[in-house]
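Honest question from a wet-lab person: if I give you the sequences of every part of a complex, can you actually get the arrangement of the whole thing, not just the pieces? Trying it with mine:
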Amino acid sequence: MTDRPLRIALAGLGTVGGGVVKALGARARELAVRAGRPLEIVAGSARDRRKPREFPTAFAWSDDPVALAHGDADVVVELIGGEDGPALALVREALKEGKHVVTANKALLARHGTALAVLAEEKNLALKFEAAAAGGIPIVKALRESLIAYGVVAVRGILNGTCNYILTQMEATGRPFADVLKDAQKLGYAEADPTLDVGGGDTAHKLALLAALAFGAAPDLGAMAVQGIAHITPEDIGFAREFGYRIKLLGIAKMTAQGLDQRVQPAMVSAGTPLGDVNGAFNAVVADTGAAGPFFFEGRGAGEAPTAGAVIADLVDIARGNIGPAFGIPARALTALPSAPHGSATSAFYLRFQVLDVPGVLAEIAGRLAEWRVSIESMIQRGRAPGEAVSIVMITHETSHGAVEGALQTIAALDHVMAPPCMIPMEAG
Amino acid sequence: MTDRPLRIALAGLGTVGGGVVKALGARARELAVRAGRPLEIVAGSARDRRKPREFPTAFAWSDDPVALAHGDADVVVELIGGEDGPALALVREALKEGKHVVTANKALLARHGTALAVLAEEKNLALKFEAAAAGGIPIVKALRESLIAYGVVAVRGILNGTCNYILTQMEATGRPFADVLKDAQKLGYAEADPTLDVGGGDTAHKLALLAALAFGAAPDLGAMAVQGIAHITPEDIGFAREFGYRIKLLGIAKMTAQGLDQRVQPAMVSAGTPLGDVNGAFNAVVADTGAAGPFFFEGRGAGEAPTAGAVIADLVDIARGNIGPAFGIPARALTALPSAPHGSATSAFYLRFQVLDVPGVLAEIAGRLAEWRVSIESMIQRGRAPGEAVSIVMITHETSHGAVEGALQTIAALDHVMAPPCMIPMEAG
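Yes, you can. This is the full assembly:
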């Protein structure tokens, strides 16, 4: 143990930044023992210095976060957020100035991760981001350092607590998406502008990082099909339950014969499986390592302590000199892996059609599906309402996403089909 | 990336050792990229050189494993097993000779972990053991390096795949322990001498390591109450199911106001919880970090690939220079934490009494429980068989283990109680 502290500059003093300050204070002695040296916050920056805070800010203050890159810290912690702007400027400057970086910023790394990792490695600096994916779950370290002997063949995760909370509440209460979202906003489980969460964008950012760690693929949002949960209805959730499934927003990255399949979409996951049983605001990841089998990780993915804890674990790593490449392999070795062509992934599907209850409409739908060689395993049409709208629900056999999309496009154009059909793939949990 | 390989000496070429040889061969290029340098097996040792093996042994051979400590390897991998004998001699010699050590040997570390860690740290050498607890699940690294910011307040795990397989089969088939064990032996899920597994000893070894990582407690088997699963009956499993529980052999280490509570025992775990739903030969661990919440890990805990994968992850850590103390804090800082006094732990209990169905027996049992202030939440007595043996099953309110033990001792001595009563605590899953 050396007495030379690891000097930390902290940009962003919101929930997570405050958590870091508090935990480094409250557990200073224990953490110094773990780190082999004290961890000391020497500088900080936030938007408003005068804002009342429930923790001490007895460090050098900078109104300009980017100035922290030029101070005397060993490591800069970036908790500003945003994929560009001051966050990017700070991280870039800090690395240029020879400072290690810890960040919780998934958007930043999903866009600029490769370039920043190259910059870090040129100077043998750490660029660590445990807090950026699945919060407190140590999945970044697990993929980077542990599940490496046999390679990873697939990663599937519930990576957005807001979406999982909303879907869980929809199942529990039977209420529609918009109502549950409003309540979640009141309770602080969803942001005032929920787009990034419920639209799947946040999940996509995190998935890009997990895919980079698992497959050595440069983070590539462009390669990803992204769908949110706003179109999921209580009816879908009810039918899912009836078939023994739950609807979860999954981030999926899977190596296939056609290339790397990366997508974010609501999926039917069997109840009683690890992912199927993840409720509320929790996050979870399955990493399938082929020969060594699947590994499952679950825990809190957001909030003060889980996220601050992940930041602190990265700081202790750096204090101990565990640097290593950001994504587990040299950044220059990250490759643009060929993407699986859109629609080439295969799975069974849940399909829901809203149709006018007139003779022949079922035959028409079945005919279109048959043309695209989508075969039906089971069907539910409940109640009759001649001349009115009813739902027809089908479960298909395994088929390509492209075939289902093709069939649904022709079905959507049929006279008696009254709303865009809903398609949800069944995925392993 | 340097070209200087990490030179590995491998003692023990059974299932796991063979897996290490095969994976280092098959994935040499990928692993060299992850490790920053090639991983090369330069020497090996096993009991019988002439035994046919399905992998090449084109390295320097030594009939005496301990001789590997004196060769030119950078790191010795100990896969011999056994808590003393050649395993201990090799690890001790290797560290004395300045070689890093990777081992899968939980028995060795549970007995000699502190002394060996001291030896390693004196020379700034790694002593890594990811494979020793929960096989492929990276729980050693998670506790050592990730879940550190807020400390761990409790660890609970299903750490022995053989026991979990047997209990799962007992539930699925309704057959008694002895029969299911015999089948498990035929299928290779249980050893010819199953004592260490089904008696709880193997779980105790692993728990000692997890407790050391989580609490900084020197591994201490003497501080641990250990009970196996041989006394669990299909009837217990049936009642558990009726109450919504499953019986799991848990290793539990929990910080309490009275001290560190460490024990291995069958527990009732609610179905629908992470641990309650772990079936078959899988392992799983819940690490409760207080402020940052519980984290759950599940995966294969034994077998060639999961265990070899854990060994290889340790080797890559060493190749990268990630040394650090074996238990996350300096070995000399590991303390003999005060143990919670025997019986001080509290939980609700499942109790089963085999009694002669005569008037008054229930009143007698209830009376004894009341004397020890054990209060009953619910009771089942199914069927009457006047003059014959029947089972009475009770669920208690939360109470101390000591009180239940005291009450059961007096109840066991009652005239109409025909077998030692069975007590199984309910534990969180």
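Two things worth pointing out. Chain B touches chain A through 53 residues (CB under 8 Å). Residues 346-427 of chain B form a domain with the Alpha-Beta Plaits fold (CATH 3.30.70.260).
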